[in-house]
């Protein structure tokens, strides 16, 4: 979980209690009304206890999820796993978490409480070292659950005047001052306004969200004016005299008041932007929120106003600003949307916009902007899911859902989510009925997804269903899938793949030729025609190079490495395998990297360097485990043959030692070793460093003042990779900002220089 966008105020005793409970229980649920601060408390505690969980702290934000069917898949994704095994997504989770000491933070469980309870029960029952921290407005009702109600922040009582110094000892006052000074830098608690500040915090019952909404008005109103205006809303709730309305009413009044203070356009943008899942950018807001009283050229100013009023939170990176809304405010916006009878029309605009996003990305995918396209889809993942859910549920819209889920099939595979692609397609096909246009092609893609997660029986069932439709448009897709299933089953696949390549070529669809070309090239080489296999794979490399894309280039290079190490020149295999691995590491495609790492182990064994081979087999095993996959299906024969050769040469003891060392290597060190580097000795016992060599290098560049984009350019990596490295550094060093990284790197450099001088 990353650091919050704003400073954290108070909650010391609550934080201590959560940490104590996490030491004693395996499920701790923070409960309380919306806006009381459950999420921020969970984030703060998770950052503080990360060192107690050597396998990591992973946050899963559930507010973005619209239905429970995607819950397990979302957890799989947040853990960075690839759901490609033939077992269920739950089995993937169980296998990965079985022996790991990890803290899983499930945030905003209340709308999925039954599904969350079932998930937690299953995981805690099978993963003895797993600990779960949940936030919810109600209990998960799981055996062994420890509930901790999160109280409001402490407020001064109505016992008379207090000095400013006495007031700021109360957490509610400190939060108000912190947020108010963020929008009006000169704001302070003084003798003149202290009574009003205390009155305001009491009126708001110490609810953090209500306090933050009120503090956002300090630029135009004094604390006394805010208290007076808010007091009238609270009095209405109390029947004319304020008689301590419950906290839900208090928060409702604060949100109502914030809404009433917005202009008409801001109100419309607030309610309409509640349709977004997760976060969104300005282009999406302008498309979805404009119209019916909101001129397109006023959306930007409305968004700016909502950020200023703390209704929208600004996030994103140095390139693209994104916005998100707290769940309480999103629910309020949806209420207002329903009152205006705009729920269906705005949901349709949301779906249409993201349908168009998918179409744009699909059109540009097979080209030089592939990584940018991948990043865009990843950023919009929650919105794509929401659009798919709406389309499947809305009568007559299943065809759009099929179209959306079928686009950029490579994205689902690279994310390690072919099972989810299949599920979306199958749900849409079922909703559309037997006369759904494009049914055969959709079933073919569902079959391809099943093959990618190695469920070959299901793949054959779906592809046979596609063939029964009798749609000529789908025939090359059917041949493609049957060829892929045949290759995975070590059956003749050449003719099927060749037919798909030819048919897609006749349509001018080079992109769709790529995977069948891979199948054809590898299969024909295994049939004994190495030269033709080389020609086909080099043709694939040329076509991908002409297009400027990298995903299929890596696949082709891997295919070349496979046939060369098996039948041809090991040096050619080595060059191809390393280039493929570089591409996959830059794209953060872990499943593909597992294949490449395994192939590099075969090559080392073929070249006689069995110690290196054993180490690489271990490094590959770590990647296979993380992906929830195994090499047995797709590359089982060469994997087993070269691994057994290495073990036989080294003997069990030496092989197991090298394998274990490889599996335990940090990812950066494993990548460096696979790409030709040597094993580095461990750091001195008196100066342990938690960072990999690459992370130390990046920390130094942060200390030099470089942005993540500049670091990416300097090291010739993607910005997303640089972002990931910086986040890993923050997590490993238990830091919250770049300034701390810079100070650490400077201190390390000074210590090193001093040591050199002493020698």
Category from helices, strands and their pairing: mainly alpha
Q: Helicity range of the residues?
A: 55-70%
The total of helices stands at 38
Distance between the termini: 42 Å
Reported for the largest beta sheet, the result is: 5 strands, parallel
Number of strands: 8
What would the average pLDDT be, to the nearest integer? 87
As residue ranges, the low-confidence spans are 1-5, 236-245, 681-687
Characterise this structure.
The protein is mainly alpha-helical. The protein contains 38 helices and 8 strands. A 5-stranded parallel sheet has the order 2-3-4-1-5, sandwiched between helices. The chain has a 3-stranded antiparallel sheet with strand order 6-8-7. Helix 28 packs parallel to helix 30 and helix 35 packs across helix 38. The two termini are 42 Å apart. 50% of the residues are buried. The N terminus is likely disordered.
In short:
The chain is mainly alpha-helical and 759 residues long. The protein has 38 helices and eight strands.
List keywords for this structure.
38 helices, mainly alpha, globular, single chain, 759 residues, five-stranded parallel β-sheet
Fold blueprint:
Elements: H1 12-24, E1 27-31, H2 38-49, E2 57-61, H3 71-78, H4 89-97, E3 103-107, H5 113-126, E4 131-136, E5 146-149, H6 164-167, H7 171-183, H8 194-203, H9 208-215, H10 223-237, H11 247-261, H12 264-273, E6 280-281, H13 282-289, H14 299-308, E7 313-316, E8 321-324, H15 327-339, H16 343-365, H17 370-379, H18 381-393, H19 398-406, H20 409-414, H21 418-432, H22 439-452, H23 456-469, H24 475-488, H25 494-506, H26 510-526, H27 530-547, H28 551-567, H29 570-587, H30 590-606, H31 610-627, H32 636-650, H33 652-664, H34 667-674, H35 693-703, H36 708-715, H37 719-733, H38 738-758
Parallel strand pairs: 1-4, 1-5, 2-3, 3-4
Antiparallel strand pairs: 6-8, 7-8
Helix pairs in contact: 1-2, 3-4, 4-5, 7-9, 8-10, 9-11, 10-11, 12-14, 12-15, 13-16, 16-17, 16-18, 18-19, 18-21, 19-21, 21-22, 22-23, 22-24, 23-24, 24-25, 24-26, 25-26, 26-27, 26-28, 27-28, 28-29, 28-30, 29-30, 30-31, 30-32, 31-32, 31-33, 32-33, 35-37, 35-38, 36-37
């Amino acid at each position: 979980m990353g650091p919050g966008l704003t400073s954290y105020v108070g909650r010391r005793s609550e934080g201590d209690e959560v940490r104590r409970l996490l030491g004693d229980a395996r499920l701790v649920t923070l409960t309380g009304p919306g806006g009381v601060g459950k999420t921020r408390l969970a984030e703060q505690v998770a950052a503080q206890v990360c060192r107690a969980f050597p396998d990591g702290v992973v946050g899963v934000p559930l507010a973005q999820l619209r239905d429970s069917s995607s819950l397990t898949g979302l957890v799989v994704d947040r853990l960075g796993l690839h759901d490609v095994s033939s077992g269920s997504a739950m089995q993937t989770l169980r296998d990965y978490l079985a022996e790991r000491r990890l803290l899983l933070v499930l945030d905003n469980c209340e709308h999925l409480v039954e599904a969350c309870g079932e998930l937690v029960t299953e995981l805690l029952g099978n993963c003895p070292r797993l600990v779960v921290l949940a936030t919810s407005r109600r209990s998960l009702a799981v055996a062994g659950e420890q509930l901790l109600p999160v109280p409001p922040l402490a407020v001064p009582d109505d016992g008379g005047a207090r000095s400013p110094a006495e007031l700021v000892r109360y957490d509610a006052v400190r939060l108000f001052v912190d947020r108010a000074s963020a929008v009006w830098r000169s704001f302070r608690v003084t003798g003149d306004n202290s009574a009003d500040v205390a009155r305001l915090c009491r009126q708001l019952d110490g609810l953090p969200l209500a306090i933050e909404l009120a503090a956002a008005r300090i630029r135009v109103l004094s604390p006394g004016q805010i208290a007076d205006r808010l007091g009238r809303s609270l009095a209405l709730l109390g029947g004319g005299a304020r008689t301590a309305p419950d906290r839900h009413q208090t928060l409702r009044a604060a949100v109502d008041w914030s809404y009433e203070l917005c202009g008409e356009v801001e109100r419309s943008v607030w309610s309409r932007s509640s349709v977004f899942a997760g976060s969104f950018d300005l282009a999406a807001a302008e498309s979805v929120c404009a119209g019916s009283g909101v001129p397109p050229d006023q959306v930007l100013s409305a968004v700016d106003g909502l950020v200023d009023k703390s209704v929208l939170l600004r996030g994103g990176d140095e390139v693209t600003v994104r916005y998100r809304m707290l769940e309480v405010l999103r629910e309020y916006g949806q209420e207002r949307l329903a009152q205006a009878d705009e729920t269906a029309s705005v949901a349709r605009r949301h779906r249409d916009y993201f349908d168009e996003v998918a179409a744009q990305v699909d059109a540009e995918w097979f080209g030089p902007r592939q990584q940018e396209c991948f990043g865009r889809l990843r950023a919009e993942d929650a919105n794509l899911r929401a659009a798919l859910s709406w389309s499947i549920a809305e009568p007559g819209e299943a065809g759009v859902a099929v179209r959306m889920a079928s686009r950029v099939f490579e994205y689902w595979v690279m994310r390690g989510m072919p099972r989810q692609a299949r599920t979306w397609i199958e749900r849409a096909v079922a909703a559309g009925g037997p006369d759904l246009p494009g049914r055969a092609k959709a079933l073919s893609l569902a079959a391809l997804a099943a093959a990618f997660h190695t469920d070959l029986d299901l793949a054959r069932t779906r592809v046979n269903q596609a063939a029964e439709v009798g749609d000529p448009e789908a025939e090359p897709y059917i041949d493609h899938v049957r060829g892929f299933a045949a290759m995975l089953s070590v059956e003749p696949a050449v003719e099927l793949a060749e037919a798909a390549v030819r048919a897609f070529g006749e349509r001018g669809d080079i992109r769709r030729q790529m995977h069948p070309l891979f199948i054809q090239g590898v299969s024909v080489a295994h049939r004994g025609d190495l030269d033709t296999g080389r020609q086909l794979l080099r043709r694939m490399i040329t076509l991908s190079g002409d297009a400027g894309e990298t995903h299929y280039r890596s696949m082709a290079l891997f295919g070349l490495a496979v046939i060369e190490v098996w039948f041809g020149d090991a040096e050619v295999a080595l060059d191809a395998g390393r280039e493929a691995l570089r591409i996959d590491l830059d794209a953060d495609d872990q499943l593909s990297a597992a294949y490449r790492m395994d192939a590099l182990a075969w090559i080392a064994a073929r070249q006689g360097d069995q110690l290196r081979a054993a180490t690489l087999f271990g490094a590959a095993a770590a990647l296979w485990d993380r992906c929830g996959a195994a090499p047995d299906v797709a590359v089982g024969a060469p994997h087993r043959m070269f691994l057994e050769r290495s073990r036989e040469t080294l003997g069990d003891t030496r092989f197991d030692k090298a394998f274990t060392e490889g599996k335990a290597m940090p990812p950066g060190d494993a990548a460096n070793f696979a790409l030709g580097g040597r094993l580095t000795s461990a750091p001195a016992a008196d100066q342990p460093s938690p960072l990999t060599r690459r992370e130390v290098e990046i920390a130094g560049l942060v200390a030099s003042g470089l942005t993540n984009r500049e670091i990416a350019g300097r090291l010739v990596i993607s910005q997303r990779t640089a972002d990931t490295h910086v986040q890993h550094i923050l997590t490993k060093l238990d830091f919250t900002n770049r300034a701390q990284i810079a100070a650490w790197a400077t201190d390390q450099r000074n210590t090193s220089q001093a040591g050199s001088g002493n020698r």
